[in-house]
Amino acid sequence: MGFKVDTSFLRFLTMGALGVRRVAEELRARGFEPIELERYCASNKIWATKVKRLRLPDLLCVRTGLRAEVRAKSDLKIRMSDAPNNPDRTWDAGCRNEDVVALIACTEGPDGPMPADGAVYFSVRALRESVAQSKLGPPKSASEGAERDRTWPATIPSRPGKVLSVNHEKLVVMMEGDGKDPRKQTYTLNGKHAYVKAGDRFAADITMLAGAPQALADLNRHLGDSYNPLDHLAAESPMDRYAAAKALRFRTDLHERAVPALERMLDTEQEIRVALEAAGSAAVLGSGKGEERIATVLWDKDHAEMSMEAILILTELKTAFASDQLRRAASDARFAGDERRQAAIWGLGKAGLKSYGDLVAFIGDNEENAAFHAIAGFGSDTPKPVIAELIAILIEGDPRRAPAASEALRVIDSPTVLEPLVEATNTATGHTDWVLATIGRLSPDMVRTHLRGSALLERLEPMLLLAQGANWLAKEEVATDMAFLLKQSL
User: 71 vs 327, 397, 432, CA distance in Å?
Assistant: First the structure.
């Protein structure tokens, strides 16, 4: 975890992840079966270890083969990152004409970014055919070959309303709502193509009325497509082989034939990233050969980035083999001081195997980043026996482990934490101050409801005033900003 706090970067990462999730929901509602093709595209977890992956769209429908690249935008535009002098980083690298790009508006809500209910879809073919109308912005950094924004002309209304008329030259609408008087507005198309017709209603900032691409993508025409991943395991394109290998674990109708096909692939595949994904799917389906390949890559000291990818794959497997490998990686001296150790611990927690009992040993670890990942790895579904272990650590009062256990219990923040803590205040002998302090850090509404009318609540009220979210200064984002400001003291 080499990154320092960068709330701006995290915000954009969160916006992108939420955009992917919302588009996946929309595709699912339309009858598709999307999976995350680009690993971690639906997550905002930041890793410093750079894993060089194939350039892939974010989502893949395992039934139709449709691939979708998702772009979440704070201001909706047809905009793609481009590096014209680097073939591996051009805006359409790795894309097929039939792939789609989903552009989704994302606004800032009280709890962070909020994606719109629906996205705007274009085929890659339509974007390629209209690329001459797009414009390149300035380089995003001073480095040679730096990425730039490529933007296609588009018309996005700033107020909701209704389309009155459309022809080849102009678009006439009635702007309504937003507390303002209705007014008629005319948009000159200037070579753009209208995506709406008379009578259509539109929303502000999330509907695209017109743009340079000839038409929006017709997703319905893909619903009749049939995709058999087995037919693509030997495809010429490594992206196609990767997609097929990953898709097989989700195709229950093909599982019987998938294992021998994936094991044969492991004997011949030269692209390590494709082979590792094939091993992951084979392992999901019970293949010892797949597990063996993952373990080989995990413990390969000369390929740290692919070893990291192996850990992320193990996090997804949720098998006894995966649990054993992650525990070993979290404890092995070879990974001391290495982010792969943090990733293994993270994989044992709520983001992966939910093996919460395994996290307890690491909450007071001498490597702070390892301890941070263990503490943050607990989820609200942590079972009672593990909670009891954490409370026992509070009562022991170890100066390093007790505050870590208190923070872990605050992260869990559920009635199954509160009830035994309250019981411990009455029955435990030892450092009960840590028990009281931990109760005071839980959600104030939950604590007040549970302890209504009790003497214990009177003792805790001053602490509850300062619990996270209890007042405007106790909000997480405010506390971060305030801490940053206070450091500016020279």
Answer: 36, 48, 50
HSE (CB half, 13 Å, CA atoms) of 14? 13
Q: Please say whether the dihedral angle defined by the alpha carbons of residues 326, 7, 112 and 207, taken in this order, is positive or negative.
A: negative
65 dihedral zone (left: phi>0; alpha: psi -120 to 50; beta) = left
Is the pLDDT score of 3 beyond 70?
no
Query: Looking at residue 191, what DSSP letter applies?
Result: T
| pLDDT tens per residue across span 22-67 | 999 999 999 999 999 999 999 999 898 878 888 899 999 999 999 9
In three-state form (DSSP H/G/I as H, E/B as E, the rest C), the secondary structure along 118-139 is CCEEEEHHHHHHCHHHCEEEEE
pLDDT in tens, 111-149: 788 999 999 999 999 999 999 999 999 988 766 567 899
Task: For the chain, give percent helix, strand, coil, nearest 5.
Answer: 45, 15, 40
Check the CA dihedral 409-442-113-24 and report its sign. Answer: positive
List Cβ<8 Å contacts ≥24 apart for 479-487: 480/5, 480/7, 481/7, 484/5
The token pair at 41 is 């595209």
Coil/strand/helix, residue 409: helix
**For residue 202, what are the β-bridge partners?**
161
Classified as helix, coil or strand, 473 is helix
Note if the pTM is more than 0.70. yes
Report yes or no: 72 and 40 within 8 Å, Cβ to Cβ. no
Give me 102's structure tokens. Answer: 């989903």
Structural element, H or E, at residue 393: helix 384-396
C-beta separation of 407 from 373 below 8 A: no
Q: What burial class does residue 8 get, using C-beta atoms within 10 Å of its C-beta: 0-12 exposed, 13-18 middle, 19+ buried?
A: exposed
Looking at residue 251, its amino acid is R
CA atoms of 450 and 120, how far apart (whole Å): 46
> Nearest to residue 190, comparing CAs of 211, 206, 172?
211
Helix count (H) and strand count (E) of the chain? 18, 16
Question: What is the reported pLDDT for 382?
Answer: 98
Instruction: Specify the 3-state DSSP secondary structure of 171.
Output: strand
- Domains of the chain, with CATH numbers? 7-153+212-222 (3.40.1350.10), 154-206 (2.40.50), 378-490 (no CATH)
Segments of 189-237 assigned E as strands = 193-194, 201-202, 210-211
| Selection from 367, 441, 448 nearest residue 408 by Cα | 441
> How far is 76 from 70, CA to CA, in rounded Å?
12
